[in-house]
Amino acid sequence: MRLRAAISGDLDKYLIAELLEAEQAVTGAIRTATTGLKNSMRAQVTAAGLGPRLAKSWRGDVYPKQGKSLKAAGMVYTKAAKIMEGFEEGQVIKGKDGFWLAIPTPNAPKKVLGKRVTPGNLEKARGIRLRFVYRKNGPSLLVAENMRASYSRKTGDLRGFRKASQSALKSGRGLTSVVMFWMVPQVKMPKLIRFEPETAKWHRRIPELIVKYWKD
Hints:
The chain is of the alpha+beta class.
């Protein structure tokens, strides 16, 4: 007695179908991991209070741009790399050439002449002179003299400070000295960003994601 077995089918067609499924699974996993890491970094920046603009600086790209591939790769990056490195490593920032670092207080406007406020552009825009006050303990100060508080007519809330008029200077009413900047020799940035651990977490998830995207 002879036992005979016949196998029929198109092996090439089967292998091609399996390859397509593998390419789809790998590409889907990479895309999910890339998007997940990007969103995680954006969430970290937002939670750290660094603002939506810095959060959106995190981007994610998947290659190839079109189609699917077993060699699919993802890249997550930020357009504000130096800032992010500072908050990840807790870098120490020192004043250039030994000068002081000027940190705006809540009394200073956020922007002057369309740019981030500095002692120089504040003096220029407001026509004032800032007085340096050295303090042995704690940060030194840059103080604006002969200022007047400005309040909202609707709510009564403090809007800021402005240079006193000539009549106010003569009468002396409502004049005040306002601390506009804290002056420090250096400042250490807090560690608010954790990019490497987050990257490792999503990298470990890739095998599980491939299985998820592989059709049975």
